[in-house]
Each structure stands twice: as structure tokens, then as C-alpha cells.
Design a protein that fits this description.
- This protein has 210 residues and is α+β, with helices and mostly antiparallel strands.
- The chain is built from seven helices and four strands, in the order H-H-E-E-E-E-H-H-H-H-H.
- It has a four-stranded antiparallel beta sheet with strand order 2-1-3-4, with helices on both faces.
- The radius of gyration is 19 Å and the shape is globular.
Length: 210
């Protein structure tokens, strides 16, 4: 059995690579890779989630020990996920076997710049709409209108069906609070050398130009 290289070994190899890559080609390759992994995640939950549609979520996190490693985690979710930086969300349809992107939020730093910039380049306008909805507190309403669906968040679902759940024997507990994401649980699904590979986050100036 061939021994698999560790994240550290792959990172060291990537750091020593002096090849000049086309950022546009890298962006296309990363996008295709993300869509493929999102489809695989959706398909893997086909018999686990008893709903015709559900969400596939991708979150990104940097490694605490290896600075140039970016970790990506995919998981399926029945309800509208709570928005957060470094997150991309798809809606998977079991009947068609297809996914569509619902939103993609960049890093907190870029989100702040987009929110404060009065003007942005055309390619950032869609993201700016998501960012404003995030900061101004109407994110789920914005997404439902944009995606033309009526999916509820988990909190909204529990509130809507509260009495039915109690009648069915569910115990009423304390209100749900925010839970911090534990990045230590994220597995290495994909490794990107951030010294050479640039995803969708160029620094914006005051005019929103890259």
C-alpha cells in the first residue's frame, strides 16, 4: 500500500515549486473541483436525508500549524445554514441530481471592504448584495427571494413547528444559542498553496477595483 503524503510534506513541496501559474486557470480549476466535491457530498447523503432537496455547505479554514495550507470541509444540511465568512452553500436536488449555488461569502476582511465600499466592480455586485444582507440582518429573506425557494432555517423551522414537536413528544428546552465552529474537526479534503494559488479574494480599493 502506497504511503500517503502528509499535509506538511505536500505544503513543503508546493512551497518549493517555482512554476508560474495562470491565476485564471487556477480559479477555474478550483471552481470545478469545488462543484465536483459538492456533488459528491450531495449524492452521499441521498439515502440519509429524507427530503427532495437539501443544502451542501463548504467552509474554509487555515491550518493552525501549517500557514500555507487551506482546509475545505463539505457537509449536508437540511435547513438554510447560518451565513458566515469563508462559506459557500449549494442546494442539491435529489430528483435531478444537480446543484445550484445559493451564496458564497469571502473572508471577513473582504466582506468588510465590500460593505463599506460605495462602488464595486460588476463581478463583486452579487457578493456585495449577500454581504449587505448579512450585516443588515435580512440574509435569509434575501436568499429566499434571490433563489426563489421557501426553505426555512433550523431556528425558523423549530419555531414554526414548535407545538407539533411538543405534541409528538419532543421536550422543550432552552433557546438555541450561537455555537462557535470548531476548526479542529475540519479534515483535509483539499490543500491549496496560498503562496501561489489565488482564489476569489483580490484586495479591493475604495473604488472596488481589483
Amino acid at each position: 500500500m502506497k504511503k500517503r503524503k502528509t499535509a506538511g510534506e505536500l505544503s513543503l513541496k508546493a512551497s518549493s515549486d517555482n512554476t508560474i501559474y495562470d491565476p485564471l486557470e487556477i480559479g477555474h480549476a478550483l471552481t470545478e473541483d469545488i462543484i465536483q466535491q459538492a456533488l459528491e457530498c450531495g449524492e452521499s447523503h441521498r439515502h440519509k436525508l429524507d427530503e427532495p432537496e437539501y443544502f451542501v455547505v463548504m467552509v474554509k479554514a487555515s491550518d493552525n500549524l501549517i500557514k500555507c495550507v487551506l482546509r475545505k470541509k463539505f457537509y449536508a444540511w437540511l435547513y438554510l445554514p447560518s451565513p458566515r465568512p469563508e462559506q459557500t452553500v449549494f442546494l442539491f436536488n435529489k430528483i435531478t441530481g444537480k446543484i445550484k449555488r445559493c451564496w458564497s461569502l469571502p473572508s471577513a476582511h473582504i466582506m468588510e471592504q465590500l460593505y463599506l465600499s460605495p462602488y464595486v466592480a460588476d463581478k463583486w455586485k452579487l457578493t456585495k448584495g449577500w454581504v449587505h444582507a448579512f450585516y443588515d440582518g435580512y440574509f435569509w429573506q434575501h436568499i429566499r427571494k434571490e433563489c426563489n425557494f421557501d426553505h426555512l432555517s433550523e431556528i425558523e423551522y423549530l419555531k414554526t413547528h414548535r407545538q407539533k414537536l411538543i405534541d409528538a413528544g419532543a421536550k422543550e428546552g432552552p433557546p438555541l444559542g450561537a455555537e462557535a465552529f470548531d476548526f479542529s474537526k475540519v479534515k483535509v479534503d483539499h490543500i491549496v498553496n496560498t503562496k501561489t494559488a489565488h482564489d476569489f479574494e483580490p484586495v479591493l480599493n475604495n473604488l472596488g477595483e481589483t
